Automatic annotation (TrEMBL):
Coiled-coil boundaries: none
UniProt KW keywords: Signal
Membrane spanning residue stretches: none
Organism: Streptomyces filamentosus (Streptomyces roseosporus)
Stretches with biased composition (Pro residues): 78-94
Cleaved signal peptide residues: 1-27
Stretches with biased composition (Low complexity): 40-63
Region annotation (Disordered) ranges: 34-63, 76-120
Source domain of life: Bacteria
Protein name per the record: Secreted protein
Protein backbone atom coordinates (compact mmCIF):
# COMPACT_ATOMS: atom_id res chain seq x y z
CA UNK A 1 0.00 0.00 0.00
CA UNK A 2 1.30 3.42 -1.03
CA UNK A 3 1.36 6.09 1.62
CA UNK A 4 1.29 9.85 0.96
CA UNK A 5 4.02 11.75 2.61
CA UNK A 6 2.66 14.83 4.42
CA UNK A 7 4.70 17.88 5.29
CA UNK A 8 5.41 18.02 8.92
CA UNK A 9 7.65 19.97 11.07
CA UNK A 10 8.92 23.54 10.80
CA UNK A 11 8.65 23.69 6.95
CA UNK A 12 4.91 22.93 6.86
CA UNK A 13 3.74 26.29 8.21
CA UNK A 14 5.49 28.58 5.62
CA UNK A 15 4.24 26.42 2.72
CA UNK A 16 0.64 26.50 3.95
CA UNK A 17 0.81 30.24 4.46
CA UNK A 18 2.01 30.78 0.86
CA UNK A 19 -0.82 28.62 -0.51
CA UNK A 20 -3.44 30.54 1.43
CA UNK A 21 -2.07 33.86 0.17
CA UNK A 22 -2.20 32.65 -3.44
CA UNK A 23 -5.83 31.56 -3.10
CA UNK A 24 -6.76 34.92 -1.57
CA UNK A 25 -5.14 36.78 -4.50
CA UNK A 26 -7.10 34.73 -7.04
CA UNK A 27 -10.36 35.47 -5.20
CA UNK A 28 -9.66 39.21 -5.20
CA UNK A 29 -8.92 39.23 -8.94
CA UNK A 30 -12.22 37.46 -9.67
CA UNK A 31 -14.18 39.91 -7.57
CA UNK A 32 -12.51 42.84 -9.30
CA UNK A 33 -13.53 41.59 -12.76
CA UNK A 34 -17.14 41.10 -11.71
CA UNK A 35 -17.21 44.48 -9.99
CA UNK A 36 -15.85 46.14 -13.13
CA UNK A 37 -18.79 44.89 -15.18
CA UNK A 38 -21.44 46.20 -12.77
CA UNK A 39 -20.94 49.97 -13.21
CA UNK A 40 -20.82 49.60 -17.01
CA UNK A 41 -24.26 47.96 -16.98
CA UNK A 42 -25.71 50.68 -14.75
CA UNK A 43 -24.21 53.41 -16.92
CA UNK A 44 -25.85 51.94 -20.01
CA UNK A 45 -29.16 51.87 -18.22
CA UNK A 46 -28.77 55.49 -17.15
CA UNK A 47 -27.88 56.49 -20.69
CA UNK A 48 -30.99 54.80 -22.03
CA UNK A 49 -33.12 56.54 -19.44
CA UNK A 50 -31.65 59.97 -20.18
CA UNK A 51 -32.23 59.46 -23.91
CA UNK A 52 -35.98 58.96 -23.39
CA UNK A 53 -38.19 61.99 -24.26
CA UNK A 54 -39.07 64.17 -21.30
CA UNK A 55 -42.50 65.26 -22.55
CA UNK A 56 -45.08 63.81 -24.93
CA UNK A 57 -46.02 65.70 -28.08
CA UNK A 58 -49.58 67.09 -28.31
CA UNK A 59 -51.97 64.46 -29.59
CA UNK A 60 -54.46 64.99 -32.41
CA UNK A 61 -58.08 64.19 -31.50
CA UNK A 62 -59.25 60.86 -32.95
CA UNK A 63 -60.92 61.36 -36.31
CA UNK A 64 -59.56 64.91 -36.77
CA UNK A 65 -58.46 64.31 -40.37
CA UNK A 66 -61.89 62.98 -41.37
CA UNK A 67 -63.54 65.88 -39.52
CA UNK A 68 -61.49 68.45 -41.44
CA UNK A 69 -62.35 66.69 -44.71
CA UNK A 70 -66.05 66.94 -43.80
CA UNK A 71 -65.71 70.68 -43.10
CA UNK A 72 -64.06 71.20 -46.48
CA UNK A 73 -66.81 69.25 -48.25
CA UNK A 74 -69.60 71.19 -46.53
CA UNK A 75 -67.95 74.51 -47.43
CA UNK A 76 -67.00 73.68 -51.02
CA UNK A 77 -69.80 75.86 -52.45
CA UNK A 78 -68.97 78.82 -50.18
CA UNK A 79 -66.57 81.72 -50.91
CA UNK A 80 -63.00 81.70 -49.58
CA UNK A 81 -62.42 82.90 -46.00
CA UNK A 82 -61.70 86.50 -45.12
CA UNK A 83 -64.38 88.26 -47.15
CA UNK A 84 -66.86 90.40 -45.24
CA UNK A 85 -70.47 90.55 -46.46
CA UNK A 86 -71.44 93.68 -48.36
CA UNK A 87 -73.12 96.20 -46.10
CA UNK A 88 -76.89 96.45 -46.65
CA UNK A 89 -78.05 99.60 -48.49
CA UNK A 90 -78.67 102.63 -46.30
CA UNK A 91 -82.26 103.81 -46.00
CA UNK A 92 -83.24 106.49 -48.50
CA UNK A 93 -82.46 109.98 -47.25
CA UNK A 94 -85.38 112.41 -46.96
CA UNK A 95 -85.60 115.23 -49.50
CA UNK A 96 -83.25 118.15 -48.93
CA UNK A 97 -84.51 120.43 -46.22
CA UNK A 98 -86.75 117.75 -44.70
CA UNK A 99 -85.97 115.45 -41.79
CA UNK A 100 -87.87 112.60 -40.20
CA UNK A 101 -89.14 113.56 -36.77
CA UNK A 102 -90.50 111.26 -34.09
CA UNK A 103 -93.85 112.05 -32.43
CA UNK A 104 -92.03 113.51 -29.43
CA UNK A 105 -90.15 115.92 -31.68
CA UNK A 106 -86.78 114.08 -31.52
CA UNK A 107 -84.81 112.98 -34.56
CA UNK A 108 -84.49 109.16 -34.62
CA UNK A 109 -80.97 107.80 -34.85
CA UNK A 110 -79.86 105.43 -37.55
CA UNK A 111 -80.41 101.75 -36.66
CA UNK A 112 -77.34 99.92 -35.42
CA UNK A 113 -76.57 96.79 -37.39
CA UNK A 114 -75.94 93.79 -35.19
CA UNK A 115 -76.01 90.31 -36.67
CA UNK A 116 -73.83 87.42 -37.69
CA UNK A 117 -72.97 89.20 -40.94
CA UNK A 118 -71.17 91.89 -38.90
CA UNK A 119 -69.00 89.43 -36.94
CA UNK A 120 -68.60 86.44 -39.26
CA UNK A 121 -67.05 86.59 -42.70
CA UNK A 122 -68.91 85.63 -45.86
CA UNK A 123 -67.61 82.08 -45.81
CA UNK A 124 -68.66 81.46 -42.20
CA UNK A 125 -72.11 82.92 -42.84
CA UNK A 126 -72.52 80.61 -45.84
CA UNK A 127 -71.07 77.58 -44.05
CA UNK A 128 -73.38 78.06 -41.06
CA UNK A 129 -76.41 77.60 -43.31
CA UNK A 130 -74.97 74.39 -44.76
CA UNK A 131 -74.27 72.91 -41.32
CA UNK A 132 -77.69 73.87 -39.98
CA UNK A 133 -79.52 72.20 -42.85
CA UNK A 134 -77.69 68.90 -42.56
CA UNK A 135 -77.90 68.78 -38.74
CA UNK A 136 -81.61 69.62 -38.67
CA UNK A 137 -82.41 66.97 -41.24
CA UNK A 138 -80.90 64.27 -39.01
CA UNK A 139 -82.10 65.52 -35.62
CA UNK A 140 -85.71 65.75 -36.76
CA UNK A 141 -85.61 61.98 -37.22
CA UNK A 142 -84.53 61.35 -33.60
CA UNK A 143 -87.93 60.77 -31.99
CA UNK A 144 -86.86 60.61 -28.33
CA UNK A 145 -83.53 62.41 -28.09
CA UNK A 146 -81.05 61.80 -25.30
CA UNK A 147 -77.49 63.11 -25.00
CA UNK A 148 -76.24 59.70 -26.19
CA UNK A 149 -78.51 59.52 -29.26
CA UNK A 150 -77.81 63.15 -30.19
CA UNK A 151 -74.06 62.57 -29.93
CA UNK A 152 -74.41 59.46 -32.08
CA UNK A 153 -76.40 61.39 -34.69
CA UNK A 154 -73.80 64.17 -34.80
CA UNK A 155 -70.95 61.64 -34.97
CA UNK A 156 -72.70 60.07 -37.94
CA UNK A 157 -72.53 63.41 -39.76
CA UNK A 158 -68.78 63.67 -39.11
CA UNK A 159 -68.76 65.92 -36.05
CA UNK A 160 -66.27 64.36 -33.64
CA UNK A 161 -66.55 64.43 -29.84
CA UNK A 162 -63.78 67.03 -29.51
CA UNK A 163 -66.07 69.56 -31.25
CA UNK A 164 -69.37 68.64 -29.55
CA UNK A 165 -69.98 70.58 -26.34
CA UNK A 166 -72.53 71.13 -23.56
CA UNK A 167 -74.83 68.19 -24.27
CA UNK A 168 -77.61 68.50 -21.70
CA UNK A 169 -81.14 67.16 -21.39
CA UNK A 170 -84.10 69.19 -20.15
CA UNK A 171 -87.25 67.10 -20.30
CA UNK A 172 -87.74 65.94 -23.87
CA UNK A 173 -85.21 68.44 -25.27
CA UNK A 174 -81.43 67.98 -25.59
CA UNK A 175 -79.30 71.09 -26.07
CA UNK A 176 -75.82 71.06 -27.63
CA UNK A 177 -73.16 73.25 -29.19
CA UNK A 178 -70.81 72.65 -32.11
CA UNK A 179 -67.35 74.22 -32.30
CA UNK A 180 -66.82 74.91 -36.01
CA UNK A 181 -63.84 77.26 -35.70
CA UNK A 182 -61.20 76.82 -38.41
CA UNK A 183 -58.42 78.94 -39.88
CA UNK A 184 -58.90 81.68 -37.30
CA UNK A 185 -62.68 81.79 -37.70
CA UNK A 186 -65.19 82.04 -34.85
CA UNK A 187 -68.22 80.15 -36.14
CA UNK A 188 -70.16 77.85 -33.84
CA UNK A 189 -73.69 76.48 -33.73
CA UNK A 190 -76.04 76.13 -30.79
CA UNK A 191 -79.03 73.86 -31.11
CA UNK A 192 -81.75 71.80 -29.51
CA UNK A 193 -82.82 68.30 -30.45
CA UNK A 194 -86.57 67.83 -30.01
CA UNK A 195 -87.71 65.61 -32.84
CA UNK A 196 -89.62 67.60 -35.46
CA UNK A 197 -89.25 70.71 -33.28
CA UNK A 198 -85.43 70.62 -33.40
CA UNK A 199 -83.71 73.95 -33.96
CA UNK A 200 -80.20 75.27 -34.55
CA UNK A 201 -78.75 78.78 -34.88
CA UNK A 202 -75.32 80.33 -35.53
CA UNK A 203 -73.19 81.65 -32.69
CA UNK A 204 -69.90 83.45 -32.16
CA UNK A 205 -67.17 81.48 -30.37
CA UNK A 206 -64.12 82.78 -28.54
CA UNK A 207 -61.31 83.70 -30.94
CA UNK A 208 -58.70 81.62 -29.12
CA UNK A 209 -58.36 79.24 -26.21
CA UNK A 210 -60.99 76.88 -24.84
CA UNK A 211 -64.36 76.86 -26.56
CA UNK A 212 -66.85 79.37 -25.17
CA UNK A 213 -69.90 81.00 -26.80
CA UNK A 214 -69.86 84.80 -26.75
CA UNK A 215 -72.98 85.55 -28.80
CA UNK A 216 -75.91 83.71 -30.38
CA UNK A 217 -78.21 84.84 -33.18
CA UNK A 218 -81.73 83.59 -33.74
CA UNK A 219 -82.56 83.00 -37.36
CA UNK A 220 -85.96 84.26 -38.46
CA UNK A 221 -88.53 81.47 -38.73
Amino acid sequence: MTQTTALRGPLARPVLALAAAALASLALVGCGEQGGKGPATVSAGNAATSAAPTSAAPTTPPGQAAYEAMLAKVAQTCPPPGEKPAAPPSPAAPPKGEQSVAPDGSVPSQPVLDGPETELDTREWCVSVQHEQRVLEVLQKVAKPTPATVRKALNGLGYIDAHIHDLAQDGAVVSFRLDLRESGGRLCETGTAAGEESDIDPCLASATGPFTVEKTWKRPA
